[in-house]
Specification:
The structure holds two protein chains of two kinds. Chain A is α/β, with parallel strands linked by helices. Chain A contains eight helices and eleven strands. In chain A, the strands form three sheets. A five-stranded parallel sheet of chain A has the order 2-1-3-4-5, sandwiched between helices. Chain A starts with a strand and ends in a 10-residue tail after the last strand. Chain B contains nine helices and twelve strands. The chains are: A alpha/beta, B alpha+beta.
Chain lengths: 224, 454
């Protein structure tokens, strides 16, 4: 996801906090940079501060919506007057948090946004015998709970977001690393390996030369 | 307490009483003149009637004319001056008479006397003047009694008229009393007598100035609340990260960041407090003489470690002893804010110069740095509270430093200008303290000249 926040301390903390929750965060510090980043269409959601220098958050949001960009936007604002919040929502924001906010709440709201975007009401991602709870990073396979690390969770969530589809290594790397993170070679393989070990090798299938997908072992080859 | 009503009543009644008294005196004088003419005519007529009659008949006639003290006295003498007749022997009147009218003083007050020659006899008729005075007085009294009788009614009328006239004042007072402290719209000033208009006008003027001050204050509080949220949000998030930390290394790093966040929040609160303290009209401290070179040296000593940590060459370049009149703490805050700002915005290895200069009219403090400077189009706005330059990059101040400088400078009658910094790069802030009033220079004539400048 894309974080647009001009305050260095807040930006660093939000980024760190959200990555602990399994989000991969790219951080920009002004409105122009935010627009450039949005043009790449690599982010699933935007966390937008309204008081950005160079181009205000509201302007960024308006031009995003005018340009037909429907990605979920959560605004962060220090102005808690109702008029300010209304202005943000009316400009096309999906949700807002008022500073100071709580990291846990912020993460929960982001999960809710991505859920709504995927058209789901149930917070639990499930496919076949596999269930994933994004709030607790717990996976369940055939009734057994398994704890996942933040990276493992991010990978599994990406695969479960489009069940049955094959995701390439670079697609999965994009899920694991923000712009400034050093990319470790073989990291995707390492984490997939760990996931297979925890969940059972039949659940994550490797399509040689293409990438990985989650499979429904009970339903054979079938995809829904 | 003075009362317009009582004052007006007393003075109006006194005025009316005075007018009545003047009228009474006038009436009295006029009545006396008329009485004189009338009684003189009467005396003459009487004398004429006596000359026609034989003198034997006189006593009865004279007695009939006026018995009592104010009655007339008739005397008749023959050619030889022998008194033939005296109507009232008790009266002592001049024995010798000059012909015609005369006024004679006696033991019983002045008498009016008329003497005339009738054949071989001199006939003299005398009448006391008191009779005429009494008549005049009674006429005067008759004139003023009705006026005096009306006076109480007049007093009541005046009393109520004044009360009616003062009604608009009561209305204004009630309108002011009904207001809540937040209700600062102008008072209605239509239908007011023009004596009350200036008062309401002045009140409305005060109300509007009050409203502007309050609006500015409200805007500042809103801005301050907003600005406080940012460091508090950072602290909140940093505390949460520290809480979540699972290893000691993580926790230590999170706590270091938390401390940084707290320092920043503390600094902002301190600056807000400084700004509030420097609010015009708040400080009632009597100005004292401050040597700016001493203050500058103290500030530089305080901030040297900060400059040293960034590898910035901080120094005081010229140090004439430069005294100005003002608040020593505020002036120190001013210098400290300027130097602190300069260090903050100057990249590592840069330079910050503090200089003092003095000419006939001003003490000039200059702080120059070799930082990025402020583009000319932003120079007006940097003095606004919470304004931060767009290109400041990673350096994030409270946005209050220059606002505080400006406020302190204004309170000391000093001007602040922005210009180029070290070697034409960076930012140079110049504060000019005009020195016309309290400075005493050794050359008396010079000081007098400087002092006479407006």
């Amino acid at each position: 996801m894309l974080l647009a926040e001009d305050d260095a301390m807040i930006g660093a903390s939000v980024r760190r906090g959200l990555s602990q929750d399994g989000f991969t965060v790219d951080w920009v510090e002004d409105g122009r940079a935010a627009e450039l980043a949005l043009a790449d269409k690599v982010h699933d959601a935007v966390l937008l501060d309204l008081g950005l220098p160079r181009k205000s958050g509201l302007e960024v949001l308006s031009s995003m919506r005018r340009g037909g960009d429907t990605r979920p936007v959560l605004i962060m604002t220090a102005r808690d007057a109702i008029a300010d919040r209304v202005a943000g929502l009316d400009a096309g924001a999906d949700d807002y948090v008022v500073k100071p906010f709580d990291l846990t709440e912020l993460a929960a709201r982001l999960r809710a946004l991505s859920r709504r975007r995927a058209g789901r009401a149930d917070p639990i991602l499930s496919y076949g015998v596999l269930e994933l709870d994004p709030a607790s990073h717990q996976a369940r396979v055939r009734g057994t709970s398994v704890s996942l690390s933040a990276r493992e969770f991010a990978l599994l969530a990406a695969l479960l977001a489009r069940p049955g589809a094959v995701l390439s290594r670079s697609q999965l790397e994009g899920r694991l690393y923000g712009w400034s993170d050093p990319v470790e070679s073989n990291a995707v393989e390492v984490h997939i390996h760990a996931l297979r070990k925890k969940l059972g090798a039949d659940l994550i299938r490797n399509v040689r030369g293409v990438g990985w997908m989650v499979a429904k072992p009970d339903a054979g080859q079938g995809t829904s | 307490m003075t009362s317009i009503r009582r004052e007006l009543l007393v003075w109006l009644l006194l005025g009316i009483a005075l007018a009545v008294a003047v009228a009474a005196i006038g009436t009295y004088w006029r009545a006396r003149d008329e009485a004189n003419a009338l009684f003189d005519y009467q005396l003459k007529e009487m004398a004429a009637s006596l000359t026609d009659a034989p003198f034997a008949a006189v006593p009865a006639g004279a007695g009939a004319i006026g018995p009592g003290s104010d009655a007339m006295v008739v005397q008749i003498w023959d050619r030889n001056g022998v008194q033939l007749f005296l109507s009232q022997p008790r009266r002592v009147l001049p024995q010798n008479a000059q012909l015609g009218f005369s006024t004679v003083a006696t033991d019983n007050g002045p008498w009016r006397v008329f003497s005339t020659l009738a054949g071989a006899q001199v006939v003299q008729i005398a009448q006391p003047m008191s009779a005429r005075r009494e008549l005049a007085a009674s006429m005067a009294l008759r004139t003023i009694v009705p006026l005096l009788a009306v006076l109480p009614f007049l007093a009541v009328l005046i009393w109520f008229t004044i009360a009616r006239g003062l009604k608009p004042l009561d209305r204004v007072a009630a309108a002011v009393a009904r207001r809540s402290p937040a209700q600062l719209d102008p008072l209605p000033d239509s239908d007011l007598p023009h004596e009350v208009q200036p008062l309401v006008g002045a009140l409305n003027d005060l109300l509007s100035r009050l409203r502007h001050t309050l609006d500015a204050q409200r805007a500042f509080v809103a801005d301050a609340a907003h600005e406080l949220r940012t460091p508090l949000t950072a602290v909140h998030l940093q505390a949460q990260l520290a809480e979540r930390a699972t290893t000691d290394v993580e926790r230590a790093a999170a706590l270091t960041e938390l401390k940084g966040g707290l320092e920043r929040a503390t600094r902002l609160v301190e600056q807000l407090l400084t700004l509030a303290r420097e609010e015009p009209g708040v400080s009632a401290l009597a100005p004292s003489t401050v040597d700016l070179s001493v203050s500058a040296r103290e500030v530089i000593a305080d901030l040297a470690p900060l400059a040293g940590a960034k590898g910035i060459d901080l120094g005081l370049s010229a140090t004439p002893s430069s005294t100005v009149s003002g608040d020593p703490d505020a002036l120190r805050t001013l210098i400290s804010n300027l130097v602190d700002n300069a260090i903050r915005y100057t990249p590592a290895g840069g330079r910050v110069d503090v200089a003092l200069a003095e000419d006939a009219r001003a003490v000039v403090l200059t702080v120059r740095d070799s930082g990025p400077g402020i583009p000319p189009e932003d120079r007006e706005r940097v003095f606004d509270r919470f304004y931060r330059g767009g290109g400041a990059g990673a350096i994030r101040g409270s946005g209050l430093g220059l606002a505080i400088v400006k406020q302190i400078a204004e309170r000391h009658g000093a001007g602040v200008e922005l210009g180029p910094g070290v070697d034409g790069r960076g930012l140079g802030v110049t504060v000019r303290f005009a020195t016309r009033d309290t400075r005493i220079t050794p050359r008396g004539s010079h000081a007098a000249m400087a002092g006479s400048k407006p």
